[in-house]
Design goal:
The complex is a heterodimer of chains A (468) and B (97).
Chain A lengths: L3 H9 L5 H14 L6 E4 L2 H15 L11 E5 L26 H8 L3 E6 L19 E2 L2 E5 L5 H8 L5 E6 L5 H7 L2 E4 L19 E6 L2 H11 L25 E5 L9 H16 L3 E5 L7 H16 L17 H12 L2 H14 L4 H25 L2 E5 L15 H6 L5 H6 L3 E9 L2 E9 L4 H16 L1
Parallel strand pairs in A: 2-3, 2-6, 9-10, 9-11
Antiparallel strand pairs in A: 1-3, 4-5, 6-8, 7-8, 7-12, 11-13, 12-13
Chain B lengths: L5 H10 L6 H18 L35 H5 L5 E2 L2 E2 L7
Antiparallel strand pairs in B: 1-2
Classes of the chains: A alpha/beta (468), B mainly alpha (97).
């Protein structure tokens, strides 16, 4: 798939048109239907917008920085032209009354949304197997998952349907599928990108981020979607203020806890090769122990279900969403929710309400939030001596369908390396670093809060060294 | 800490407004208990005197000036997703006999 600057230059030179690019993308959605990456295409609206952009470009009118570039968004973001389902029966027919701020910002630059990508229902999962509409298939091996929860977005980019896609990352949901599908996946600093119009999962860690073929493309998209939005009170204005320095020599901490025997040997090999390349290029890489990471996953699976239980309380079958008619109001609530959620949604709601209940609040919820403080402190200590932290994204390459689906705890354990940055609100990327057993493996780079440009610079370095 | 029993999950399901079948309760209970046992490792972490972090950017309730901002969303667009409406209202079940 061509990069965004290449496509833009072809558009400028008149070698292609926005209509042609949209028709190609819509054709690719149809041709790749077996991968189940896209739940619903956006046809009429996309073609209409493309025609307008072609006319504007031809007549020399000012067009945006992405005029005519097609993209796909995870189906937990509100968009016009197709339902917003969150891959759930609950929102199967939800017709968005407004668009997510991130889509508005992309459209203001002339980008064109051509479809809604598959995900685990309500973004709960790491394999897209929890989608109410079937799992997404990995473009590199039809027997394996694409990862999740932004599996459809990652697969769409890997399949070359669009040059970029949007995902959301609560505990690794952009980075892990990016690693599994061999594309770049970026989770910005918490608060860097507006969540207005994004189906809420865990509000203290939810972040929207891009998936793309190159680090430069991911950076461009982040710059366009990021920044303060009055409609999302948690957004920041200053997240990209640090300098982008892709020629600098960096000092990196390789997480000792992520380099042990529990890591797939192929993944370890990719990481050590990347470390050697970085060292040969003049960067310093030291193995550093981060002892708080041992309990980060436990913190995550207390805090996040608690926020999920609260955020999903809004689905009551009254104002919008699935409604099952019943005799009493109470039965209407319980039967609608029962039918609208998948098992994983229910498990998380139950755990969330358990850890928030009066007898257990201190032992689980408050305790987890205290332990979260210790994780943040651990990060700060390491950042006193290092520019960034590196390690795998996941302990394995993409796993086979059904490998973990019957064992929710084993599935949770696959999130071990991604949840740490989420709990601390730090920027983190998955950049393709090599292959293990023929499957793509990503390197994770975690930066200080608001040091998004440092993460991009380092990812660009890794990308360059791999290509050399 | 005590284990989560089937009757605990049943009670939590009721509080969560979920109409779980007996089969579902029997299936989910051991899964939830395994997850609880895993997260219980937090009890080994020394958190004496540590402040909890509920929000990483240390924001507190965000308030803005009390003025009307037009988000450009009309009432019809908002009501089209409601399962049952009457004129410009969402219709709900009668709750007072």
């Amino acid at each position: 798939m061509k990069t965004i600057p290449v496509l833009l230059s072809e558009l400028e030179k008149g070698e292609t048109t926005a209509v042609a690019l949209i028709e190609q993308a819509l054709g690719a959605i149809e041709a790749n239907v077996d991968f189940n990456a896209v739940l619903n295409p956006i046809k009429d609206r996309a073609l209409e917008r493309a025609k307008k952009i072609d006319v504007a470009r031809k007549s020399g009118e000012k067009t945006g920085r992405l005029a005519g570039i097609p993209f796909i968004v995870k189906d937990n973001m509100l968009a016009f032209g197709a339902p917003t389902t969150a891959a759930s029966k609950m929102l199967q027919n939800f017709d968005a009354p407004f668009q997510a701020e991130v889509i508005e910002r992309l459209e203001n630059e002339g980008a064109i949304c051509v479809g809604k990508a598959n995900l685990d229902a309500f973004a709960h999962g790491g394999s897209t197997e929890n989608s109410a509409f079937g799992p997404t298939v990995n473009p590199h091996d039809k027997g394996r998952v694409a990862g999740g929860s932004s599996g459809g977005s990652a697969a769409s980019v890997a399949l070359g349907i669009t040059p970029f896609a949007l995902g959301s990352d609560t505990g690794g949901s952009v980075r892990q599928p990016a690693s599994f599908c061999g594309v770049v996946g970026y989770k910005p600093t918490y608060g860097a990108v507006s969540r207005y119009g994004v189906v809420a999962m865990a509000s203290s860690t939810d972040v929207v981020g891009p998936l793309a073929n190159t680090v430069d493309d991911a950076r461009l998209i982040t710059e366009i979607i990021g920044g303060r939005d009055e409609k999302d009170g948690t957004t920041l204005a200053d997240y990209l203020e640090n300098e982008y320095l892709p020629q600098k020599k960096y000092k990196l901490a390789l997480v000792k806890e992520w380099n042990g025997s529990t890591i797939d040997p192929g993944v370890r090999e990719v990481i050590s090769t990347t470390v050697e390349r970085l060292q040969s290029a003049g960067h310093v890489v030291d193995e550093v122990s981060m002892p708080t990471f041992d309990y980060a996953l436990a913190v995550y699976y207390v805090v996040v279900p608690a926020e999920i239980a609260s955020n999903l309380a809004r689905y009551d079958g009254i104002r919008y969403g699935l409604r099952l008619e019943a005799g009493s109001l109470k039965e209407l609530y319980t039967s609608s929710r029962e039918a609208g959620f998948v098992d994983e949604n229910k498990r998380r709601i139950i755990i969330g309400n358990y850890v928030l209940s009066s007898g257990y609040y201190d032992a689980y919820y408050k305790k987890a939030q205290q332990a979260r403080t210790l994780i943040i402190k651990n990060f700060s200590e390491v950042f006193e001596s290092y520019d960034a932290i590196i390690g795998p994204v996941s302990s394995t390459p993409a796993f086979a369908f059904g490998e973990y689906i019957d064992d929710p705890l084993e599935m949770y354990l696959t999130d071990t390396m991604t949840v740490t940055a989420s709990l601390a609100g730090l920027p983190a990327i998955s950049v393709p670093a090599g292959k293990a057993g023929g499957m793509p493996v990503g390197l994770q780079i975690i930066g200080k809060a608001k040091a998004d440009q440092t993460v991009f610079a380092l990812a660009q370095i890794v990308e360059r060294l791999k290509a050399a | 800490m005590t284990a989560i029993s089937l009757s605990d999950v049943k009670k939590l399901a009721t509080l969560s407004a979920l109409d779980m079948s007996d089969e579902e309760l029997a299936r989910l209970t051991p899964e939830i208990e395994r997850i609880r046992r895993y997260v219980e490792k937090l009890s080994e972490v020394n958190t004496d005197g540590v402040e909890p972090t509920y929000q990483v950017n240390h924001l507190h309730t965000v308030v803005r000036e009390d003025k009307i901002i037009d988000y450009g969303i009309d009432q019809k667009a908002l009501l089209k997703n409601a399962p049952d409406t009457l004129e410009s209202q969402i219709k709900v079940h009668r709750i007072v006999e």
